From TrEMBL:
GO CC, alphabetical: cell outer membrane
Single biological process term from Gene Ontology: siderophore transmembrane transport
Location in the cell: Cell outer membrane
Family statement: Belongs to the TonB-dependent receptor family.
Entry annotated with the keyword Protein transport: no
Span of domain TonB-dependent receptor-like beta-barrel: 434-945
SUPFAM superfamilies associated with the record: Carboxypeptidase regulatory domain-like, Porins
Keyword Signal: yes
UniProt name for this protein: Uncharacterized protein
Source organism of this protein record: Wenyingzhuangia fucanilytica
Signal peptide range in chain numbering: 1-19
Length: 972
């Protein structure tokens, strides 16, 4: 099988090579008005996939395999397209482009895996070209993506931004794919991109393309909400050395004003006509945004009224350790301990370092269509990610290594992604376990009194004694004073050396019952292949391709269930084909594609896509489009293989072979329980979460009913029974409320998407791009919590015989004595979920040579909560967004400016960390730039959010303020 596949690839490669009889055409592309070279213009051959890019001097070399005459199309962002027919061998062509009014003529590849303009793309697509990247008003080009229509950027940290389109957004955006030079730069262990951590240096960005919505038919699993393509510059066509330096300040009320620095270098050299090399590196150092949200939340993560001074069981969003309360009412109510602020538990410094090396080889002389590329990318940094908790990623490392073969028809790419979590830790558990760790005061007390009490027991004991007036100087009944007395005795001072010592021990311990560190050294291996039959099949453009991927999960049992059996491996593969046909003098384009994907743990999945684009006029000034697309998202590696004790629950992945690998030993204290298990401990196996458990909702209803019934039985009207007797009778009377769980293993999510769109040039100065979509979802992945008694058979419970059946009595005893464990399991909801929306964008040249743009986005979900009351969709998207741009990159002798404004309305944020309202906001970014032609330099000063309207991207995330910067870029 492997030999046959290799033979097939070699035959394709040879057919591709021997079919080529090249003609060299050289030329340059200039601006018509001033003769200035146009960098990064694209020259494409009509009816072919051949594309070349102009270098820093506007030059290009095109090697043609077609017989003359041949039509080429020259395209540059901000300029009108130019068509030129080559009728004979020409040594030097000079093309002069007129300024255009739109970016819709830019050539893109991602929409159909073949070169086409944005204007004729059959689906929605957004693009940033070199000129837009250079002129972005944001502090980085990655931040500038937020100015694209329909795009949301959620900021977890100054160095960690999450991109999303069309709703259902979280910082851990597993429904959105990000490709850098064809490589998926998602973390193998986390399954989502860490912003631009291992992305591109801004000096090396050739283009950024973004496809909103489902794209699984061409790009496979997880291209569910959208996909982002970042492409770097070729060292063959864009040689030279460039450097940039950027510095400035970030400013917010809670963090103050802090300096930052950002520097980078790109060196590219065409060593020979057949070999070129490129190296890039960049470094950012800054102070992160501070997360200081002290609002109170309940046990379900909902924001409620109250503060530390008013609520005895207060649990602040960015306060950690106050989640822990006394397990039972000791006579003074349920009281939470005094936690630590996030700023006591992190170093606010954030940084990012990237380096990349690429070597390009053209093995055949006088043929630049065949190229072999080896590249390595390395990224490391310190940032904060917000998921189910807040995570401090410290010295986190990711690197990728790729070998790729490109030719006119064939693309073959293999790469590996390797990560190391470094010194990363869970901030919440750092607070909890630092608070609960034995300190000097606890040791001294136990030594003097001959006891072995925990710091929790001593803290709550002191609180109770102080509240009762048993501690001199503390007035009875004063809860604030009682808390102060307990804190003074048994809470480690966050400003002390002892705290630092305990804290450092906690964040280096991977056992979450005592520590906070997480270990992850996972890897991902991936191969892609694509072949275009352009010269072999005439009636249409036909492509075939496929991919294969393997995950190797390695957490030493701290995240995944990779304990006794070593690393976990998990495989996925897919194949696809696409047919594209043009008709009616190329005014009609029909595209159909289908892909089949198979993952190791799931049934195969077919993803078809159909699209049509039609221009009713011969000038092609108007194009209407319609598409039907499908997509799917495989459960992440954590959805399938996590096995994590979170203290209050066990989070367990739902791959069929995963639950049986999870084991944890629990203590059993009750005599009945010890008799049942034959000792003081019992082993819990993950399968019990599925096959020997009650639903969480039924246990909660049972508990409420038992409490009410017991209270009545203890009253004179109920017979005045003792509490133990009343509890036992109440449990038996309400046993019928308990329901056995029935949780299915997780399976892939699916989406069916319908889209209509229009692009048009109006009057030669205005361009309109609008679209509307409707998405229907199936099998949304959800987490369901079950409750497993540590002994007894749930399937054999007999509520009617609760007073006599031994098994039923054991189950009731387990629930009554807290001898059970909640288990959170990944599964799918059966609820109907849909979303719909629309986008409209208008671009124009006004006042002669000024660029103006405005776009509006509408997004809405359709979800009936009553179908699954415990499920949250996490739509997390504002219903309305408006974005405005205005500028001119050269309005007076090299002086330019840019303005971007964004408004969005309020919306509700749902997540496993905290739920809460996000306020409406208006943001304004500005930039002034000066192009110093004699020095090959560009100088910029600017600011992001210059109005100072501070906001949180989500409840509990850092408060984002303003960022002001100045930069200098020099091209040698």
């Amino acid at each position: 099988m492997k030999t046959n596949c290799l033979f097939f690839l070699m035959m394709l490669f040879c057919v591709n090579f021997y079919a080529q009889q090249t003609i060299n055409v050289k030329g340059k592309v200039l601006e018509e008005k001033n003769g200035k070279p146009i960098t990064s213009a694209t020259i494409s051959v009509t009816g072919s996939s051949e594309v070349v890019i102009t270098d820093a001097k506007g030059g290009f070399v095109l090697e043609l395999s077609e017989s003359l005459p041949v039509e080429i199309v020259i395209n540059a962002l901000g300029f009108k397209d130019y068509r030129y027919i080559i009728t004979q061998r020409e040594e030097d062509i000079t093309i002069r482009l007129k300024e255009g009014v739109t970016s819709l003529d830019a050539i893109v590849i991602s929409a159909s895996r073949t070169p086409e303009s944005v204007f004729e793309s059959p689906v929605s697509i957004e693009r940033l070209g070199t000129k837009q990247i250079e002129n972005t008003t944001s502090a980085t080009f990655y931040d500038g993506l937020e100015n694209l229509k329909g795009v949301d950027v959620n900021t977890s940290s100054l160095t960690f931004k999450s991109i999303n389109t069309r709703g259902f957004a979280t910082f851990a955006n597993t429904r959105f794919v990000q490709l850098v030079d064809g490589m998926d730069n998602s973390s193998p262990g986390l399954n989502f991109p860490l912003g631009n951590l291992i992305g591109l240096n801004e000096l090396d960005v050739q283009s950024v393309e973004l496809l909103p919505g489902a794209s699984s038919a061409l790009y496979g699993a997880n291209a569910f909400n959208g996909i982002l393509f970042m492409r770097s510059k070729s060292p063959f066509s864009q040689e030279g050395t460039s450097v940039y330096g950027k510095t400035g300040v970030t400013s917010s009320e809670n963090a103050g004003t802090n300096e930052f620095i950002d520097v980078g270098v790109r060196v590219a050299k065409k060593v020979t006509d057949q070999f070129a090399v490129k190296f890039t590196t960049s470094l950012l150092k800054a102070t992160d945004w501070f997360a200081t949200d002290s609002r109170n939340i309940d046990e379900d993560g909902k924001i409620i009224d109250g503060s530390r001074s008013t609520e005895i069981d207060y649990n602040g969003i960015n306060i950690y350790g106050d989640e822990f309360t006394n397990p039972t009412d000791l006579g003074f109510g349920i009281v939470s301990r005094t936690g630590y602020s996030e700023q006591s538990l992190i170093n606010p410094d954030t940084d990012s370092f990237r380096a990349a090396l690429a070597m390009h080889w053209r093995p055949f002389k006088d043929n630049d269509e065949t190229e072999v590329i080896y590249s390595s990318k390395y990224g490391t940094g310190n940032t904060i990610y917000q998921g189910a908790s807040r995570y401090a990623l410290r010295n986190f490392v990711m690197h990728q290594h790729k070998l790729e073969i490109q030719s006119k028809h064939l693309m073959l790419r293999s790469y590996v992604t390797i990560e190391n979590a470094g010194d990363s830790y869970d901030i919440r558990f750092a607070g909890i376990n630092t608070l609960r760790a034995e300190n000097a005061a606890t040791k001294a007390y136990n030594q003097v009194n001959g006891t072995n009490l925990s710091v929790d027991e001593l803290w709550f004991g002191t609180y109770g004694n102080a509240l009762a007036g048993n501690i001199p100087g503390v007035p009875a009944g004063n809860r604030v004073a009682a808390r102060g007395a307990a804190d003074a005795s048994f809470r480690t001072d966050p400003n002390s050396a002892e705290f630092r010592s305990i804290f450092n021990s906690v964040i280096n311990n991977p056992d979450l019952t005592q520590g906070a560190k997480f270990v992850d050294s996972s890897r991902l291996y991936h191969t892609d292949i694509n072949y275009n039959f352009h010269e072999l099949i005439d009636f249409a453009e036909v492509q075939i391709g496929g991919s294969a991927r393997r995950y190797v999960l390695n957490s030493d049992g701290t995240i995944f269930t990779d304990t006794s059996d070593g690393n976990i491996t998990y495989d996925e593969y897919g194949i696809y084909t696409q047919l594209q046909k043009k008709a009616l003098d190329d005014r009609l384009k029909l595209t159909g594609s289908i892909r089949y994907d198979k993952a190791q743990n799931f049934n195969g999945n077919f993803s078809p896509r159909l699209s049509v684009a039609f221009s009713p006029d011969t000038e092609s000034n108007h194009i209407f489009r319609a598409s039907y697309q499908t997509g799917f998202r495989n459960p992440t590696t954590q959805d399938q293989y996590i096995g994590l004790n979170l203290g209050n629950t066990i989070l367990l992945g739902s791959a069929p072979d995963n639950p049986i690998r999870y084991n944890k030993v629990f203590s059993v204290d009750s005599p009945a329980g010890q008799s049942a298990v034959g000792g003081a401990t019992v082993n819990f196996n993950g399968l019990q979460g599925y096959n020997n458990s009650f639903t969480r909702s039924s246990v909660e209803k049972f508990g409420e009913a038992v409490e009410a019934t017991s209270n009545y039985l203890q009253s004179p009207a109920g017979g005045g029974h003792s509490k133990p007797a009343a509890d036992a009778m109440a449990a038996g009377a309400n046993a019928g409320l308990l329901k056995k769980s029935n949780v299915n293993y997780v399976k892939p999510e699916q989406v069916t998407s319908y889209e209509l769109g229009y692009r048009g040039r109006l009057g030669g100065t205005i361009v309109v791009d609008l679209s509307a979509y409707y998405n229907k979802y199936k099998d949304f992945i959800a987490v369901v919590t079950t409750v497993s008694p540590l002994y007894g058979n749930v399937s054999a419970i007999k509520p009617a015989e609760a007073a006599t059946d031994v098994n039923t009595q054991l189950l009731l005893n387990a629930l009554g004595k807290d001898e059970f464990t909640p288990t959170s399991l990944y599964t799918n909801t059966s609820a109907d979920i849909a979303s719909y929306g629309a986008n409209i964008g208008i671009e124009a040249k006004i006042f002669g040579n000024y660029d103006f743009g405005i776009n509006y986005s509408y997004a809405k979900q359709d979800f009936d909560q009553s179908q699954d009351p415990d499920f949250e969709t996490s739509f997390n998207t504002p219903e309305h967004k408006v974005k405005l741009s205005f500028g001119n990159s050269d309005f007076y002798k090299g002086l330019g400016f840019g303005i971007n404004a964004r408004w969005q309305d309020a919306y509700y944020w749902e997540s496993t960390f905290v739920d809460g309202q996000i306020d409406a906001r208006t943001l304004l970014d500005v930039q002034l730039m000066y192009d110093i032609k004699n020095w090959n330099s560009n100088v910029k000063i600017g600011g992001a959010n210059i109005l100072g309207n501070e906001y949180e991207a989500a409840p509990g995330a850092g408060t984002i303020g303003s960022q002001f910067y100045g930069s200098w870029t020099y091209n040698f």
